[in-house]
Design brief:
By secondary structure, the chain is α+β, with helices and mostly antiparallel strands. The protein has helices spanning 6-54, 133-140, 164-183, and strands spanning 65-67, 79-86, 92-99, 108-114, 121-129. The model has no long low-confidence stretch (mean pLDDT 88).
């Protein structure tokens, strides 16, 4: 049997190494998938608590936090989930988990709490994101003084994320539009 030339051997070895590395990465992804999902649920629950605490609010109890399903044909792009929360102050608030459209290089997932009438955002909590570091820093540092936020308002964070802040703002506007519909009983 004839020996393979060196120039043919290198691609075969490189291909073998790539297959082993790819298989290892797939195995690690498979092994950590459930833990990552659990951590995302924990982060989302913490975000609900954070936006309530920002406004010195508390849910009456666990059963007073009701997930509201989307109706057939209801537009909810970028809005992952929503919840009706009855608080100890006697008011009903709406909480949204939302993911922005792509900003500079990725997205930002956050939680937002609306006023009882749905016409403004009164709380914001960063959850996670795959945006670049400047965009994520901006999302994490959004100032509480930006709230209450109403459509056409300004969000400030002290960062110069020129594409991230506008997509967060447009997502907040979508939340307000949806919350107004919920609050009006439609």
């Amino acid at each position: 049997m004839k020996k393979l030339p060196v120039y043919a051997l290198y691609p075969i070895v490189l291909g073998g190494v790539c297959l082993v590395c790819g298989a290892t990465l797939a195995l690690v992804n498979f092994a950590t998938e459930n833990k990552i999902a659990e951590n995302n649920v924990i982060k989302a629950k913490r975000a609900v608590t954070a936006v309530l605490e920002q406004n010195e609010l508390a849910a009456k109890n666990e059963s007073s936090m009701i997930t509201i399903d989307w109706k057939e044909g209801e537009e909810h792009s970028n809005l992952n989930s929503r919840m009706k929360i009855e608080c100890t102050d006697g008011s009903t608030y709406y909480y949204y988990n939302a993911t922005t459209p792509k900003g500079y290089s990725g997205t930002v997932t956050f939680g937002a709490l609306t006023s009882p009438n749905g016409q403004s955002i009164i709380g914001f909590s960063y959850i996670t994101g795959d945006e670049d570091s400047t965009g994520l820093s901006a999302a994490k540092k959004i100032y509480a003084s930006s709230f209450p936020y109403s459509p056409g308002g300004v969000i400030t964070s002290g960062q110069t994320a020129q594409k991230t802040i506008p997509v967060i703002t447009s997502t907040l506007d979508k939340i307000i539009a949806n919350a107004i519909t919920l609050a009006s009983g439609n």
